[in-house]
Amino acid sequence: MSELxxxxxxxxxxxxxxxxxxxxxxxxxxxxxMVHEVDVTDDKVRISVLPTFSGCPALHIIERxxxxxxxxxxxxxxxxxxxxxxxxWTTDRITPEGRESLKEFGISxxxxxxxxxxxxxxxxxxxxxxxxxxxxxFGPTACRSILYCKSCKNPFEAMKxxxxxx
Amino acid sequence: xxxxxxxxxxKKALIELLYQLADDDFLLAFRGSEWLGLAPHIEEDxxxxxxxxDMMGHANLYYNLLENxxxxxxxxxxxxxxxxxxxxxxxxxxxxxxxxxxxxxDYDWAFTVVRNYFYAVHKHIRLDSLRHSSYxxxxxxxxxxxxxxxxxxxxxxxxxxxxxxxxxEAILRMxxxxxKVWKDFGGVLTLGPYYEDIVKANLIDxxxxxxxxxxxxxxxxxxxVGASYPGEPRMERGNGRNGVHxxxxxxxxxxLSEVYATNPATGW
Lengths: 166, 268
Description:
The structure holds two protein chains of two kinds.
Chain A: H1 3-17, E1 20-21, E2 24-28, E3 35-41, E4 44-49, H2 58-71, E5 78-83, H3 96-104, E6 107-108, E7 132-136, E8 144-149, E9 155-159
Parallel strand pairs in A: 4-5, 6-9
Antiparallel strand pairs in A: 1-2, 3-4, 7-8, 8-9
Chain B: H1 8-33, H2 42-68, H3 74-80, H4 90-93, H5 109-130, H6 136-164, H7 168-182, H8 186-189, H9 195-200, H10 207-224, H11 247-262
Helix pairs in contact in B: 1-2, 2-3, 2-6, 5-6, 5-7, 5-10
InterPro entries (chain B): Aromatic_CoA_ox/epox, Ferritin-like, Ferritin-like_SF, PaaA_PaaC, PaaC
Pfam families (chain B): PaaA_PaaC
Protein name (chain B): Phenylacetate-CoA oxygenase subunit PaaC
């Protein structure tokens, strides 16, 4: 890879770091592990993105924001965004930084290596207590659940674990 | 198989199957969305609307697969077809009960739980087969949908089992709902007139195999809650896979497409 191309990819990645989840303002799409491949050819970028939940209404906004961010990168004239399903987006793609940012937003991150069908542990994002109850496995957005911390008496949300089912 | 390697007969079978998958989810998601604000309690309102949103997303995925093999734009497929072009099972288009969500809704929660639970069990069986589909884009979509549908199945199973082992009134209402759903649930379990081509192309398992899996599962659950298994589900009002539908589908598509149809060229 030429030095120019590699520095261009760095700039594109920087720009992607500024694209936030419209519903969780503290987390970028890189933090969420949604970016699969980035390909730069001359002044054109092709990027494949893994959708989190298939009915997520934020996907169109994310697509628009990615295009906007990348087309602002110096030397880039157009960006093509494609949603792909292979590999499947799973919650273990969320980066350590992403997990911390989720907590700041009051959302407990999902367990790292979840196996579908098995119980999972969720700690309170505020006080770290494990003494919590699940109020509703479904929440305000497709990817979240609603919980309550019995220790610090705060309601909070958690990201539903999503793992590949083979 | 990919888009490029499909033979004409396989493509025809694939199109039929995709319409069934898409329309089943589309119609039941719509009936689910009509419950918004009317579910038995606020937590259920949150859960059910989330499930309906997911299912609308699943329908959208299938419509996009249709778009990719030349059936036209996904939104147009969803909104501008006439009722006889729909391939969903009849039981999934049925209204939730008397009234409308705007005026005196007297919806039947037992019917909703039974219909959604029976459908979720079958959807899981279907996806489990589709993830090995010979058509790779469909297998990929199925693997994605499965991770979400897992939570739906769990949700409806809890409702079903709890109401079936609850008060006398609950059991009475649930039993009536099972009888009602049973009359037409056979329509969900069939792959329709192109069944042989669909199976020959290895797009999905034989419908008889999946039907047996569904019957075994439901029979076991009914036994667990102390109810009797009523024998094979029927298809009394006809086969939706043939384009046979009721007035309820007309009402559903008219409502769903009311805004879109005013100006299909606009981005809604």
